[in-house]
Amino acid sequence: DTGVSQDPRHKITKRGQNVTFRCDPISEHNRLYWYRQTLGQGPEFLTYFQNEAQLEKSRLLSDRFSAERPKGSFSTLEIQRTEQGDSAMYLCASSPGLAGPSTDTQYFGPGTRLTVL
Amino acid sequence: AQRVTQPEKLLSVFKGAPVELKCNYSYSGSPELFWYVQYSRQRLQLLLRHISRESIKGFTADLNKGETSFHLKKPFAQEEDSAMYYCALSGRRGTDKLIFGTGTRLQVFP
User: Fold this and answer.
1) CB spacing of B95 vs A56 below 8 angstroms
2) pLDDT tens digit string along B14-52?
3) Contact A94, A33 (CB under 8 A)
């Protein structure tokens, strides 16, 4: 499968613990996005990378959240001191980053479902 | 504010009936509009985008700038169309981040 992959698929943790998720984008895609989806809602944008540079962060991304893409390939999203409100599906997407007048198609991973007890 | 509104959480139809999933948006500029679909146990995937002006799996959507709408239509629903449908917009070329609506679940009964 050459699509976007995410690991783990499910994570259950206790409040106050730190968790880290990984996203592997489609090979040679230089744009990578993180979204969060809670029950009954559509995905909400969290942050965006162009290669290794984090170019935009949503206000949803509190100080407890940090994302990296160290070599412009895979990305990690860490949540420190988790809270019950962090329970959600965390989605990763990648796109080619082609220059042009229209928006790139984003390809989504299967998501990581986080449950904070 | 940038916003996408999908007023229906659930739309139920019988096979062969026409389908229209509503989407309205708010954006000060010229956004790009998309429909994404998520079938059961599958990942979110692009169904169609307004700039392509094409029909995918029998679905079409026309961007109406006057009404700020991008409704998804299909003349004859099939059972395999049952899925979650999300309308989304992208409003800024630099990021291409997507702003999604809350989604509409389409159920097509045999």
Assistant:
1) yes
2) 999 999 999 999 988 888 999 999 999 999 999 998 888
3) yes
Closest CB from A4, A40, A109 relative to B102: A40
How far apart are the CA of B60 and the nearest CA of chain A, in angstroms? 18
Q: How far apart are CA A117 and CA A104, in angstroms?
A: 37
Residues with Cβ within 8 Å of residue B11, at least 6 apart in sequence: B19, B21, B104, B105, B106, B107
Instruction: Tell me how close the Cα of B32 comes to any Cα of chain A, in angstroms.
Output: 7
* Interface residues from chain A to B (CB-CB < 8 Å): 3-4, 31, 33, 35, 40-45, 48, 55-56, 91, 95, 101-111
Chain B residue numbers with beta carbons less than 8 Å from the beta carbon of A103 are: 32, 34, 49, 90, 93, 96
Distance, in Å, from the CA atom of B102 to the CA atom of B78, rounded to the nearest integer, reads 23
Distance in angstroms (rounded) separating the CA atoms of residues A4 and B24? 29
Cα separation, A60 vs A37, whole angstroms? 12
Tell me the pLDDT of chain B averaged across its residues.
92
A1 pLDDT higher than 60: no
Q: What tokens does A117 get?
A: 């007890």
Which pLDDT band, with edges at 50, 70 and 90, does B92 fall under?
A: low
Which residue in B has a C-alpha nearest to residue A33's C-alpha?
B97
